[in-house]
Structure formats: C-alpha cells, structure tokens
Amino acid sequence: MQFIPKAGACLTTTNVLSGAGRVKWMVREESRASADNGWRIFSHIDTSEYLADSANMKVVDYNEVCEIEPALIGIWDLPVGSDLQLVDEGQGIKIVETATGRVVTPRWPAP
Fold first, then answer.
1. What is the per-residue DSSP string for 26-66?
2. What average pLDDT does range 12-28 have in this prediction?
3. Would you say 4 and 63 are in contact if contact means Cβ atoms under 8 Å apart?
4. Nearest Cα to 80, choosing from 110, 51, 40?
5. How many domains does the structure of the chain reveal?
6. Is residue 95 part of a domain?
7. Which ranges carry the Immunity protein Imm33 domain (predicted)?
8. What is the dihedral sign for C-alpha 75, 79, 80, 84?
9. pLDDT in tens, 42-66
10. What pTM was estimated for this model as a whole?
C-alpha cells in the first residue's frame, strides 16, 4: 500500500518486519544513497547485540513500515536529526522527542 508517494527506502529491523517487536524508536540520519530517506526504525525488543548483527537490519520502502505502524506516516517529512520514540500508555499512541519527551504533532496527511 502506498501512503506517501516517492517515500523512499528506510532501514528497519527484522523484529519490526516480522511483528516480533512493535515500532518504538525512529531516528532520521543523513541519506546514504539516493533512494534512502534516512529513517531508521527500531522495535521495542531490539538490543545493542541484536543491532550489531547487520543481518537483523533490512532496507524496505518506507510505506511498508507505515503499513505496520501508521503513526509513521505523520513523521515522514521531519528533518534529519529527528530522534523520536513511540509511546503507548493505554491512552493512545503519541510520538515524543527522545531527548526531551516533548510530544511531536504529526502532519496528517503527509505530503
């Protein structure tokens, strides 16, 4: 399904793709290739040991992770340097800046 036209590719963990872990952290880095939009998507169960194994990371279309977690649609155009986490305290999902805890208001719909 295409939520965002020409969204580009992102890097995510196999835990996110398999459904073993739910989306928790989102970091936007400088793009490393023309198709790379810079987003790195991690799950709540990813450990540093798990992330150290490159076989646990996959390049996928950003729309694929949006299908898994629709809240990602609203952060797509945030700038490089964004470091976010998805918080669900039983009152609905919110996205917050990791460093400050400030709630990020997603853009709906994404461009």
1. EEE---SSTTEEEEEEEETT--HHHHHSGGGEEEEEHHHHH
2. 98
3. yes
4. 40
5. 1
6. yes
7. 10-95
8. negative
9. 999 999 999 999 999 999 999 999 9
10. 0.91
Beta partners for residue 41, in sequence order: 12, 26
The tokens for 26 are 């989102």
Residue 79 identity (one-letter amino acid): P
* 110 within some domain: no
Beta bridge partners of 23: 43
Quick check: is 27 in a domain?
yes
Pairing of strands 23-28, 83-88: antiparallel
Domain that residue 43 falls in: 9-104
Is residue 65 situated within a structural domain? yes
111 preceded by a cis bond (ω within 30 of 0): no
Candidates 40, 50, 34, 30; CA nearest to 10 is 40
How many Cβ atoms from other residues are within 10 Å of residue 90's Cβ?
Answer: 4
Whether the Cβ atoms of residue 21 and residue 45 lie closer than 8 Å to each other: yes
